[in-house]
Amino acid sequence: MNKPLLAIGISLALSVPLAAQGGPKEDFQEVYAKAQSTHQDAGNFQWTITSDRLKAAKSAADSGDHEKAMAMAKEALKLAEESVAQRKKQKEAWRQVAIGN
Amino acid sequence: MLKAKVILVALGAALAVPQALAGASPEEDRKESVEYFKQMFPDVPFEEFVNGQYALNEDRRKQWESMQDFPPYEFAVAEGQELFETPFANGKTYASCFENGGIGIRQNYPYFDTEKNEVITLELAINRCREANGEEPLKWKKGAIASISAYMASTSQGKPINIKVPDDPEALAAYQDGKKFYYSRRGQLNFSCASCHVQNPGKWIRADFLSPALGQPANFPVHRAKWGELGTLHRRFAGCNNNVRAEPLPAQSEEYRNLEYFLTYMSNGLPVVGPATRP
């Protein structure tokens, strides 16, 4: 077997997944953008803590702390999803507790 | 086959009719609310509900009564009167924009304008008056607008709140929108306005004593010890939203105006007592 050829083949095979992945900056941008749009979807049910996490994520990203930025963006996304779920639930749930319904 | 179709249509209609009839009228809502609070606090006279927590807690009432000798909003009311009577650059005054020259009309606000299809609050009317006379609008939550509103409220002291929901689909929709806002849970703490002021008035939440929804708008604008100054009802709405970690909406947004419309309608018949003091 041609050992050098095999080595090149293995190296190339291993490098493919790495090349397909974006860098930490690109990953952050994707999660942050999703968190922002989900926060907007909450309409007038937005949570203040989501806004705080989004600001913290942006601030960390601007200062080059990608790990913290990603953690904050993920947290913002989770909170935003909960606020959207609240908005959807309250569409009808409010009637069950309202006086006069 | 035809028989089955007829049965299905009849069944559908039977299920749809109660849905269409569901949703009480504003007046039915109000009567039911009054009854609810009367049963919750049988010893509190109806007119006392305008005093909020002071009607329910003896210690708080004593503190409040001792403040009434020199109420902290007096200077703001005097300032409001001066601003109200000072002519704009064009020579007109606020009186030119309001029925009865703006005196003794607080109890009729907010109202639904069937031409503009929107709720008009007193503060909105004050700023629209300014703009119509070539003046810059005032900031919404405190300062001059709260002082002018306080002076106008003071000229209505004792007059029964008289909010009308005209027989108009848009007016009913605005009322219903306010009602939905009041009862919808929001914020990370998952509280609605009603969680505190319908389901739990008379109880403590941390250091705050919860007042009943009935009568709440009758005392605005209020001087809060926490603010150290007068503030409008929409300032309070924003504060409440913030307390439950819900993003506050802008003062005089359509949502807050509709909320004020619903909430004030619920207090119909109670006397205007604004401005007032609160902790």
Features:
heterodimer, A: 101 residues, mainly alpha, elongated, B: 279 residues, Cytochrome Bc1 Complex, Chain D, domain 2, 2 domains, three-stranded mixed beta sheet, two-stranded antiparallel sheet, 10 helices, 7% strand, globular, SoxXA-binding protein SoxK (chain A)
Written overview of the protein:
- The complex is a heterodimer of chains A (101) and B (279).
- With 101 residues, chain A is mainly alpha-helical.
- Chain A is built from four helices and no strands.
- Chain A has one domain.
- Chain A is 78% helix and 0% strand.
- In chain A, 25% of the residues are buried.
- With 279 residues, chain B is mostly helical.
- Chain B has two domains: 159 residues, Orthogonal Bundle (Cytochrome Bc1 Complex, Chain D, domain 2); 81 residues, Cytochrome c-like domain (Cytochrome Bc1 Complex, Chain D, domain 2, Orthogonal Bundle).
**Over the alpha carbons, how many angstroms does the gyration radius of chain A reach?**
22 Å
Proportion of strand residues of chain A = under 5%
| Strand order, sheet with most strands of chain B | 6-5-7
Largest two-chain interface: A-B, 20 and 28 residues
Helices and strands of chain A, in order, run as HHHH
Number of domains of chain B: 2
The coarse silhouette of chain B is: globular
- Average pLDDT score of chain B: 93
Number of domains of chain A: 1
CATH class of the largest domain in chain B: Mainly Alpha
Measure the end-to-end span of chain B.
70 Å
Unreliable runs of chain A: none
Strand content of chain B: 5-15%
Question: How many individual helices of chain B?
Answer: 10
What percentage of residues of chain B falls in helices of 4 or more residues? 40-55%
Number of strands of chain A: 0
